[in-house]
Amino acid sequence: MVRHSPLALAVLAMLTEAPMHPYRMQQLIKARGKDEVINVGQRNSLYQTIDRLVRGDLIAIRETERDGAFPERTVYEITEAGRDTGRLWLREQLAQPARDFPAFPAALSFLPLLSPDDVCRQLDTRVGALERELARLDETTAQATEVQVPRLFLLEGELVRAQLVVELEWVRSVVADLKAGTLTWSQEWLDEIAQRFILPAGEYKYRLAQPAAKKEPKS
């Protein structure tokens, strides 16, 4: 069974249109702005994905072509199993939320490693980066609108923008709380919290194993 990935789905989608070589796939993904949601920056990742799809009989080699001074290029085509699998993956990804593990929430879970002032500076920097990314997306969307690209082909950009707006608003609120001192911590406070909530392993297991105490009926 071939492991699903956004790049694997993109390859199947490209080959559903027509047989093509990897360079053509990469260029089409970028030209259509799909690199906003699919990482095709590394050519090796694309070739590794294609190899997995070939081994899984989801795509097949159609021919090898040579164009003048360019090296030989292998042209791939989709198989019937590939068409069915692509539709299956798409239905699953549309219907079922995936439990992703992005880096930013993981970093937030370890904020006490830094001081409140340091965290505030880093998140302030993130605010600027998010603002610039939002402006870039808006410019890209405006260009697509000018040439009348149908909304069907811009939906992923709408979602990315909506997520950016929510994150930007939230990060700004956290920065404001850090600057106001309503969100803060110190080593002494962290030590106190550790003593209050972190129990010895044996005691923790013992408490988990005990049933809830029954209340005596009032006489």
UniProtKB/TrEMBL annotation:
InterPro entries (alphabetical): Metal_resp_DNA-bind_regulator (IPR052509), Tscrpt_reg_PadR_N (IPR005149), WH-like_DNA-bd_sf (IPR036388), WH_DNA-bd_sf (IPR036390)
Organism superkingdom: Bacteria
All copies of domain Transcription regulator PadR N-terminal, residue ranges: 11-84
Pfam families: PadR
Record's protein name: Transcription regulator PadR N-terminal domain-containing protein
Species assigned in the record: Paraburkholderia sediminicola
